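Archive record:
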Amino acid sequence: QVQLEESGGGLVQSGGSLRLSCRAPRMITSTFWTYVMGWYRQVPGGQRDLVATITARGATNYDDSVKGRFSISRDNSRKMVYLQMNSLTHEETAVYYCNARSTDNNWGQGTQVTVQG
């Protein structure tokens, strides 16, 4: 089981920005390379939906709703993955989860993002 720790959530006004971070503190750096890292989000009563993913070599995939506004990146040497979110809307209020997927599938505890207005 891979331990993932998210941070950076909070309260922001509509149109604002947030940057989420996720770290894998106990993972060996060479192992981090083998994981596709991603961000998902979930609203109460809803399913967990893909936001963005990134491979070790930097290939990215985004949900259509966030293209052009969100940017996922990773620092393999630090075992970190980031999600820069711009032009946030109220409808994007959700718990955002970090995901690490290889032959196994791992989730963080989630970080709440609340967009007001």
Remarks:
- The mean pLDDT is 96.
- The helical segments are 29-32.
